[in-house]
Known about the structure:
Layout: E1 2-4, H1 31-64, H2 70-95, H3 114-122, H4 125-153, H5 159-178, H6 183-234, H7 239-267, H8 270-275, H9 277-286, E2 292-297, H10 304-325, E3 330-337, E4 340-347, H11 361-369, E5 374-378, E6 385-392
Helix pairs in contact: 1-2, 1-4, 1-5, 2-3, 2-4, 2-5, 4-5, 6-7, 6-11, 9-10, 10-11
Amino acid sequence: MTVSASAADRTDGSGRPPSDRLPPARTALDGRTWKEIAHLLLNLPVALFGFTYVFTVVLVSGVLTLTVIGLPLLAVCLLGARQLGKLERRRSRALLGVRVDEPSPLPLARGGGMFQRLWLALKDPVGWRTLLYDLIRLPWGILTFCTVLTSLFVLWPVLPFIARGLTNVDRAMVRGLLSPSDELERRIAELESDRGVVVDTAAADLRRIERDLHDGAQARLVNLAMGLGLAKEKLLEDPDSAAAMVDEAHGEVKLALQELRDLARGIHPAVLTDRGLDAALSAVASRCTVPVMVTADLPTRPAAAIEGIAYFIVSELLQNISKHSRARSASVDVWRAEDRLLVQVRDDGAGGATLEGGSGMRGLAERLGAVDGLFVVDSPVGGPTVVTAELPWRDRRE
């Protein structure tokens, strides 16, 4: 089983995914042809509504531009145009099989004052392109409605070919005017999603640290304070008992220090900061329950953030191997390939690992996706399991 968390859809020569390609039109009216006919007949009422909206926006906003409410009203109308575009994308998806990405949300809530938000709304390219789409749709809607309605009674044998030709124009309009404007806009949408993943991951890490401190070192230190208090009270009347309690407190101090070291190592180990990935991964591999061979081929050190993510990924995967794999051996390989840092963890265990399982791999994939990384799991039942993580390489700033 091979699973990639960031595999792009394959496309044909036209740049469309296989699910978006259409079979050739047939003489017989099949279900797809009837959907195309329904779309063409709906073009007129939909176009009438859209044209009326655009005409009202232009007329009313133009008249009121000289007043204080003109520009805010235009901004609101552009937001309404975005909703019309969403409805048209849904109609095209349902009846024409056109699948286009949703444009990125308008960043109205990202700080700034009222005038900055107003300016962002007024220069929204998605809203303006939707208004243009609705403006040119009226003559097209009249043409397609009349053509299809006439063909239903006069040109029945060739109606499927007419419907296909007309809807191909519709598909081109939707892709040209209602899809995200460019690759940058699609990238913004991805980064918005990735930012949410980073925030959620950071919040989860903070909760884990708080829980570990509360249930571990903090509870142990509270018991230590109570024990030392009792020892102080018995110091004069029962020195032997006080000495025993002090010895016990000394052991508690050692355990508390060890728990704090383990917690600090889980956040960012000192060996990673001082000596780099090779030494840090060797240290974490030594704590694995199966023998692990570590190979690191890195002529220079990457940025500290990239090092930290790579360390965390390997640490989590080695924990999974210890707990779930039933492996007899494992290996960790780290190397640089052009502008990417690659990490591969392999074990000879039972296999069957997936991104949907309870091993935490989905969280690792999301964390890598948030930094434009790639996470691939190849784990057939019976093994072996090979997990490959790819991160962007950024040079370290000393």
